[in-house]
From TrEMBL, chain A:
UniProt domain Luciferase-like: residue ranges: 17-302
Name of the molecule in the record: LLM class flavin-dependent oxidoreductase
Annotated source species: Lacticaseibacillus jixianensis
PANTHER family per record: BLR5498 PROTEIN (PTHR30137:SF8), LUCIFERASE-LIKE MONOOXYGENASE (PTHR30137)
Keywords: Monooxygenase, Oxidoreductase
Keyword Hydrolase: no
One Pfam family matching this protein: Bac_luciferase
TrEMBL record, chain B:
UniProt KW keywords: Oxidoreductase
Record's protein name: NADPH-dependent F420 reductase
Source organism: Lacticaseibacillus jixianensis
Residues covered by the Pyrroline-5-carboxylate reductase catalytic N-terminal domain: 6-94
Family matches, as Pfam families: F420_oxidored (PF03807)
SUPFAM superfamilies per the UniProt record, alphabetical: NAD(P)-binding Rossmann-fold domains
Domain of life where this protein originates: Bacteria
InterPro entries xrefs: NAD(P)-bd_dom_sf, P5C_Rdtase_cat_N, STEAP_metalloreductase
Length: 347, 228
C-alpha cells in the first residue's frame, strides 16, 4: 500500500435482515443475501468485504470462512476477509487450514483480522476459560505467526498442541502469505502489542468523537519507533447507513443501530441509547449516517485527522430492509468511495 | 482549596483516560501500572501528556487522592499497610472479560467497594468513577460543559466527602452523594444507573425508581429489603 493508496471495505456480522415488507429473513436466507451483497460490492469495485464471527441469536455468521468460500466462487477481485476471527477460542492450525483453503479458492484474496473479540460467547462454547483470555491470545497469535512462515513446524505451547516437524496443508504457494491484521479497541496495551507483532492495526471506532483516538494513533507511531518496527498503514471500522434522503437514513439508523447497541447493552449492563446520544454520534461522533456527500465528508475528515489508510464501513447493522442495505452498498461504492478519495487527494 | 494531587493506579483504558481528563483540566496527575516506570513513561507522555509516570509506592505516598483503575479481581495486590490514612476512589467494576467467570467478589448483598474497604481497613474508600464507561467519561465531559453529568459517589467517611466532591467537580462532573459505601451497589453493572451519563435531576429520578427494576428486585431478594 503506497501513501496515496487507500482501502475502503464493507463489514458485516450477518445481522438477520428484513424483507422490504418487514418480514424477517432466517439465518440461511441472510447468509445467501450476504453472498449477493458481496457480489454487488465486487461489481462496484469495493476493495474488501469482511465478516465477523459471532455466536449470538441476532447474527447468522458463526463460520465466516465458509461464507467467504462461497463468495470466492461468485466474485472476481474483492478481498475476502474476517473482522474478526476470535483466534483465542480457536485452533490456530485449523484456522490456518481454513484460510489456506480459502487462499486456493479465491486466488489469494483472503484476509484475516485477528481480535480478542468484544463478545465472549465463544469461550465456553469451545471449551476455553475466559480467565485465560489474555494468555490464550498471546500464545495463539505467536503460533499463528509461526504458521504463516509455511515451514515444517516445531511448537510447544501451554494452550496449544505440540507439533514436531509438522507441515500444515494445504500449503501456501511459495512466497505467498495470508494477509493478517489485528483489531484493537481502546486498550493502550493492545496497540503496543500489535506493533511488537508487526501486524497492521484496525481500530474499532464505534462511539464518540473519532479524534479522541488520536492519542492511540500517536502511541502506535511512537511504539513503532520505540521497537524499531515499521509503521504499517492504520485502519478504522465504524457503522454506517448511506441513503439519498438524510432524514430517512437517520430514522433507519435510530431504529436498527440503536436496537443493536441496546441489545448488546443488556448483556453488558449498559443503559439504552438516548436519541440525544444517537444524534451526537451522527453529528460529531462515530456513526456514518446520512447522504453520500455527508458520509464522504465525514469519512475523509476522520481519516485525515487520524492518519488512516483503511476505512471499513459496517453495513446492515441491526438487520435493516434489503433495499436499505443495497442502497448503502451502492452509495458507498458508487459515490462515497470516489468522493472520499477525491477529498483525500489520493488516487 | 488548592488542586489535590490525583494518583491513578492502573494505566489501561480507564486509568489512561482519567489521566488525560485530569491533565487536560489542569490537575496534577501521577499514574502507575504493573510496568516499570521507563516502559510506562513514553506511553503516558503520549496518551496523557503532563501526567507523571511513577511507581505504585510513589503514587500512594504523594497523591492526595488515589483512584483505583485496576481489574477488580487484582485488589489483593494492593498493600493494605501502604494505604493507611489514604483517600481511595474505587473506580473498579466486576467485569468477567477481565476478572473471570468465578465471581466471588461482587453480589447483590454488598458493593464490591465494601470488599475493597475491608481489604484496606485503614484507608478511606469512596466508590466513584465506576458507573460511566471509560470512553463516555471523556465524551460526556466535553459534550455538556453547561450541564455537567452526575457522577455518583458513596463512602462511609464523612470527612472525605468534600474532597471527593471537589475531585469529581474538577474532572468536570456534578458530584452526586449516594451516602454510605453500601449504596455503591446501586452503581454496579446491571443497575439502571450503570452506564448513565445524565444530569443530576434525571439521575435522581432513576435512583428513586431503582427498586422497581429487575436489578433492584434482586437486591431486595438477596438482602431481604432495600439498602438502608
Amino acid at each position: 500500500m503506497t501513501a496515496t493508496n487507500y482501502e475502503f471495505g464493507l463489514d458485516t456480522f450477518g445481522d438477520l435482515a428484513f424483507h422490504d415488507d418487514g418480514t424477517a429473513l432466517d439465518g440461511g436466507e441472510t447468509l445467501r443475501q450476504v453472498i449477493k451483497e458481496a457480489k454487488l460490492a465486487d461489481d462496484l469495485g469495493i476493495y474488501r468485504i469482511a465478516l465477523g464471527e459471532h455466536h449470538r441469536p441476532e447474527f447468522a455468521i458463526s463460520s465466516p470462512e465458509v461464507v467467504l468460500g462461497a463468495m470466492a466462487t461468485v466474485t472476481n477481485q474483492i478481498k475476502l476477509g474476517t473482522a474478526v476471527t476470535v483466534l483465542s477460542s480457536d485452533d490456530p492450525v485449523r484456522v490456518f487450514e481454513r484460510f489456506s483453503t480459502l487462499h486456493g479458492l479465491s486466488h489469494g484474496r483472503e484476509e484475516i483480522m485477528l481480535g480478542r473479540g468484544s463478545f465472549t460467547e465463544s469461550f465456553p462454547l469451545f471449551g476455553f476459560n475466559l480467565e485465560d483470555y489474555n494468555s490464550l491470545f498471546e500464545e495463539k497469535i505467536a503460533m499463528w505467526q509461526k504458521l504463516l512462515e509455511g515451514k515444517p513446524m516445531n511448537w510447544t505451547g501451554k494452550y496449544t498442541q505440540k507439533l514436531t516437524d509438522t507441515t500444515v496443508y494445504p500449503r501456501l504457494p511459495q512466497g505467498e502469505t495470508i494477509a493478517t491484521s489485528l483489531a484493537v479497541g481502546g486498550s493502550p496495551e493492545s496497540i503496543i502489542r500489535a506493533v511488537a507483532y508487526d501486524i497492521p492495526v484496525v481500530i474499532a471506532i464505534i462511539g464518540g468523537e473519532p479524534i479522541r483516538f488520536r492519542p492511540y494513533v500517536d502511541l502506535y507511531k511512537k511504539a513503532a519507533a520505540q521497537f524499531k518496527k515499521p509503521e504499517r498503514p492504520l485502519g478504522m471500522h465504524a457503522h454506517g447507513i448511506i441513503l439519498d434522503d438524510e432524514a430517512e437514513a437517520v430514522e433507519v439508523g435510530f431504529k436498527y443501530i440503536k436496537a443493536e447497541m441496546d441489545r448488546i447493552g443488556i448483556d453488558r449492563g449498559w443503559a439504552p441509547m438516548t436519541r440525544d446520544r444517537f444524534e451526537f454520534e451522527i453529528d460529531k461522533g462515530s456513526y456514518y449516517v446520512g447522504t453520500p456527500e455527508q458520509v464522504a465528508q465525514k469519512i475523509a475528515r476522520n481519516m485525515k485527522a487520524l492518519d488512516m489508510k483503511r476505512f471499513d464501513l459496517v453495513y446492515g447493522t441491526g438487520g435493516q430492509l434489503l433495499s436499505q442495505r443495497e442502497a448503502t452498498i451502492r452509495n458507498f461504492g458508487e459515490r462515497v468511495i470516489p468522493r472520499v478519495k477525491e477529498l483525500l487527494g489520493g488516487e | 482549596m488548592s488542586e489535590p494531587v490525583i494518583g491513578i493506579i492502573g494505566a489501561g483504558k480507564l486509568g489512561s483516560t482519567l489521566a488525560r481528563i485530569g491533565t487536560s483540566r489542569g490537575l496534577p496527575v501521577m499514574i502507575s501500572s504493573t510496568h516499570p516506570v521507563q516502559d510506562l513513561k513514553w506511553v503516558i507522555d503520549t496518551l496523557a501528556p503532563g501526567a507523571v509516570s511513577a511507581t505504585d509506592q510513589d503514587v500512594i505516598a504523594k497523591a492526595d487522592v488515589i483512584i483505583l483503575a485496576i481489574p477488580l479481581s487484582r485488589y489483593q495486590d494492593l498493600d493494605p499497610a501502604a494505604f493507611a490514612g489514604k483517600v481511595v476512589l474505587d473506580a473498579t467494576n466486576y467485569w468477567k472479560e477481565v476478572d473471570g467467570t468465578h465471581n466471588t467478589i461482587s453480589s447483590f448483598t454488598h458493593s464490591s467497594a465494601e470488599v475493597i474497604q475491608d481489604w484496606l481497613p485503614a484507608a478511606k474508600v469512596a466508590k466513584a468513577f465506576n458507573h460511566m464507561g471509560y470512553h463516555d467519561l471523556e465524551i460526556e465531559v466535553d459534550r455538556h460543559p453547561d450541564v455537567p453529568r452526575a457522577m455518583a459517589f458513596a463512602t462511609d467517611h464523612d470527612d472525605i466527602r468534600p474532597l471527593v466532591a471537589q475531585v469529581l467537580t474538577a474532572f468536570g462532573f456534578d458530584p452526586f452523594d449516594l451516602g454510605p459505601l453500601r449504596f455503591g451497589l446501586l452503581l454496579e453493572p446491571g443497575s439502571p444507573l450503570f452506564g448513565e451519563a445524565i444530569p443530576r435531576t434525571e439521575f435522581a429520578a432513576k435512583l428513586a425508581a431503582i427498586y422497581a427494576s429487575p436489578f433492584g428486585q434482586q437486591i431486595i431478594a438477596a438482602r431481604g429489603g432495600e439498602i438502608k
